[in-house]
Amino acid sequence: MRILHTSDWHLGRSLHRVSLLDAQAAFLDHLVATVRERDVEAVVVAGDVYDRAVPSLPAVELYDQALHRLAALGVPTVIISGNHDSARRLGVGAGLLGSAGVHLRTRPAECGEPVVLRDAHGEVAFYGLPYLEPGLVKDEFAAPADHEGVLGAALDRVRADLATRPEGTRSVVLAHAFVTGGAPSDSERDITVGGVSAVPAALFDGIDYVALGHLHGSQALGERLRYSGSPLAYSFSEADHRKSMWLIDLDGAGALTAERVDCPVPRPLARLRGTLEELLADPAHTPHEDAWVEATLTDSVRPDEPMARLAVRFPHLLSLVFAPERPPEPDGRSYARRLQGRGDHEITEDFVAHVRGEAPSEAERAVLRAAVDAVRLETQATEARR
Fold it and tell me: Which residues form the Calcineurin-like phosphoesterase domain (predicted)?
């Protein structure tokens, strides 16, 4: 059976306030084309269809169009809810959609109830494990209130059902979780509970293929355990990601081959670092002039109007970070030690120089002295009234 594994669409999400709806629509066009052109027999979406529990109307319309197009191709689709989705909202109409070949698995109680598909070799049981928030589902599974406990209990139900199936039934599990060994990025929402969010890969032993969602980088934690990653970059920490889907061929004996299918890139991401003048003049940055750019300025003194000046060369500049590169304090003393014996005026002026990288001018010193003196006088007056 040929399976297309995708996840983490995050429909409705933006990148630094730039809408990605057009790019998400282009990805869904690509997904439908891949299903049609590569003879895909099942599509699995491992959670985070939307970016928020109450998605925008354009995001819902995009999702609705994708479902209609997949259903029109006659290719079964299995979808689970992720930690960004509202499981109850996403699951509305699951029964009706199932009759059209779109199978939603958003209820924890359904973890042991597979979608059973057939190919020339027999049955393949698809088990959808939606994101399981430990504190909310521990009673359903009579499990400890942690990720490993509830996910382990859900997989016990999977194995119990699989044991009742005809011999040779192959198994696919969809799960939305942070599995130990996976590489995170900055754009995943933290799911830590009690200081622990990761679950061991061994929980999934014995499953023919595990289609994971949650982490945004495409990666394989083993031959049978893979994250598809998000189809688009949702933070600059993903600038070096290769965005793709997994095309999985599962043969009659449960052996598999995997191929990465690249997703369209609406605009590359670039993280640039240097002084303002270096970024404006260095020819090495020419290939990034049409990219979405995050610029980190290392000037010791914050330059004037850096965003506007950089935008002349990099019109798609989205993020500006200041990280001044300054020599270490010459004497190595602590800040408290350096303040000993210094007056209020000197401490204030030194603070400005430390933060800005440049000592205050005479006019600024006058303002600082006046402010310090005013505070001192007010403090003395308050003490006198007590």
Answer: 1-217
Total domains, the chain: 3
Asked if residue 329 belongs to a domain, the reply is no
Question: Do 203 and 126 reside in the same domain of the chain?
Answer: yes
| Cα torsion through 296, 302, 304, 306, rounded to 10 | 0
Expressed as residue numbers, the domain containing 129 is 2-262
Query: What does pLDDT average to in each consecutive run of 10 residues of the chain (386 residues)?
Result: 98 96 98 98 98 96 97 97 96 94 96 96 97 94 94 97 96 96 87 71 97 97 97 96 98 96 97 97 97 96 94 98 76 61 81 77 90 82 68
Rounded CA gap, 374 and 22, in Å? Answer: 56
Same domain, 284 and 346: no
Residue 356 CB burial class (10 angstroms; 0-12, 13-18, ≥19): middle
The residue among 219, 234, 262 that closes a domain is: 262
Strand partners, 231: none
Q: How many residues does the chain have?
A: 386
- Taking alpha carbons only, the member of 141, 9, 165, 12 closest to residue 82 is 9
Give the closest residue to 231 by CA, choosing from 42, 11, 3, 56. Answer: 11
What is the number of helices (H) and of strands (E) in the chain? 11, 19
For the chain, report the end-to-end CA distance as a whole number of angstroms.
Answer: 84
Q: Is 17 left (phi over 0), alpha (psi -120 to 50) or beta?
A: left
Q: What single DSSP character describes residue 327?
A: P
Per-residue tokens: 184: 């995170």
The reported pTM is 0.84
> Identity (one letter) of the amino acid at 101?
G
What gap in Å lies between CA 129 and CA 113, rounded to an integer? Answer: 10
